[in-house]
Amino acid sequence: MTDDRAPSAPAADGFPPAPGSHDPETLRRRALDALLSARARTATLTDSVEDGELTAQHSPLMSPLVWDLAHIGNQEEQWLLRAVGGRQALRPEIDGLYDAFEHPRSARPSLPLLAPAEARTYASDVRGRALDILEAAPLHEGGRPLERAGFAFGMIAQHEQQHDETMLITHQLRSGPAALTAPAPPDPTDAGSLPGEVLVPAGPFTMGTSAEPWALDNERPAHRREVAAFHLDTSPVTCGAYQLFMADGGYTDPRWWAPEGWDMVREHGLTAPLFWHRDAGQWLRRRFGVTEPVPEDEPVLHVSWYEADAYARWAGRRLPTESEWEKAARHDPATGRSLRYPWGDTDPTPEHANLGQRHLRPARAGAYPAGRAPSGAGQLIGDVWEWTSSDFLPYPGFVAFPYREYSDVFFGPGHKVLRGGSFAVDQVACRGTFRNWDLPIRRQIFSGFRTARDA
Hints:
With 455 residues, the protein is of the alpha+beta class. The chain has helices at residues 24-47, 51-55, 65-84, 116-136, 151-173, 239-247, 259-268, 305-314, 322-330; strands at 197-200, 203-207, 223-227, 230-233, 276-279, 282-287, 290-293, 331-332, 337-338, 385-392, 412-419, 436-438, 447-448, 452-454. It is globular and about 60 Å long. The two termini are 32 Å apart.
């Protein structure tokens, strides 16, 4: 899910975030940077199109961009101005309009939404007041749970970045010429020498976190998991590899498909990933308003869980479990520790991973050698969200904080877990413990996968 996780009103009691090792002023600067970075990206996504495109619904799967813009401001008002700052409500009459649980996306265009100029002014007014609150808020360990370690500010920065990713999906779905541009990601330097898979030995590791200051409730608490030995693809499955599945009749053979997935293939006449089409014997794709040949060595994108699962079965393999994915991404056998990221505990840089909409596509398989994990697997952070075989379930000892609607209401077999982030994800909303989830039919999201097999 990249959207619709915010409640209609905050409930500031419950599970306090761990303070971590950062002092309050370091966390204050980090929160300020995260909030400003998110708002700059929101401006890029909304200022790049005319007002008519902001108010239009480009797909029934998505909200109008202007809804996202005002929703971002409304959630910031509810959590930072009202819950943390104790301020009087600015626009209480619009809370219901921007309650993601009250109005499905398909119905939002018919609501009396704020016009683009009014939405921008509202979000800006809220932000000015929120920064005043941040400047004065006590972020020390003994503070209120929402303020401790700057959690509420980090939560709101992550919320805005998640909606920025949602708005980027809308940009991909919109018709017409490109509104966004970005340079190509770096080419791999040693892809030809990489093994096809890595062995992750059996043994326990620490999954989840109890120490990351801005980790969300479903990432908590840290706990031990025993994982059997397995092999994992070194890189995500590429478009070229996926075309072999297609050429071998992958979309016409029910042997490879879960029953619900096969029903989806027949109902919608699926023959390829979303946004692909065949022309003059060549596979092409539409990417942010540009039609181009499908690059064979780039991770496949815009595939559902059912498609990923079918490919894995066809290849004689399987999707990794969520525990396997996290062990491959975080466990350091030399120290027995679980790292914050595959490369270590330091925040991502452009040398580590393809994040933050710096590029509008995944990097070629084998890129970012500085970001590889001790297991040898690469591109575990950024590029494409990776489907796992696991249902979205709570960890042992899970406590909803600060509201049930972020995670608790989604737990169960209906949603599958994705890991690792994509090129559309900002680093504030992506780490080795971060858990995404969605319905197994979803294809518009920036999703790919890698496969595994038992050792």
